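Q: Give me a backbone?
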Amino acid sequence: MLGDSTAVGLGDPLPGGAWRGVGPLVADALGIGPAGYLNCAFTGARMRCVRTEQLPHALARRADVALVIVGMNDTLRSDFDPRALAADLDHVLAQLRAAGTLPVPVRFHDHGRVFRLPGPLRRALKARIDQLNGVVDTVVSRHGVPCVDLDRLPGTYELASWSVDRLHPSERGHRLLARAFTDVLAGAGVAVPRPVSLACSGGAQASALDHVGWLVAKGVPWLWRRGRDLVPYAAGILVRSALGRQREAPAPDPAPEVATA
């Protein structure tokens, strides 16, 4: 497992404080025991982190399959660079393929729609996500590997699929994502002896106090920090949109000529 906090399993807590999430669910479906499963992901990871810090561990393991969930943290930063993302993802997929590993990355959904961002910020984030997905599409096509499309995944935009923070999948969301990964893997010829169940079980339930606590302690500060990175970009989108409307506006009809005696 390579990637960020979703790959870590955030949003699907177990009693006692550990995280489960998509990785262990897929591993169980494939019949992989704890000794055969490696999660290299960590919270806050960006595409470059996967290339420089996580990939070497995955290559050393020489796994049959590697799930790659990364890119959203890049879209939220002021130094967002699609060319650098493409180079890093290309390197990751090429190295995994060369090691005999089948990588399965994801293309992303409109997360501003889930998080209910204000209009300008949502449009700014959506523009970034579209660019990220363009990178994923190009690199995936180049290497001929399967990919999970979160925007087309049933349940993606349902509130029950998201945890209290609306940033990470809930247990149901992780199960939906794990089912999507195993469907794609099965289509690529990988045996899936135990299909992922969508029935929630074994996870810890969040209380109303958990929801309020997260909003106050983490939700508002997170939105403020990320908003500061996205606001200048969002302002640029609004300005360009306004200028475009001005250029496209029809010229006023000329004033009628007045006959003189």
User: Anything to note?
Assistant: The domain at 2-248 is CATH 3.40.50.1110 (Rossmann fold). The chain is about 50% helix and 5% strand.
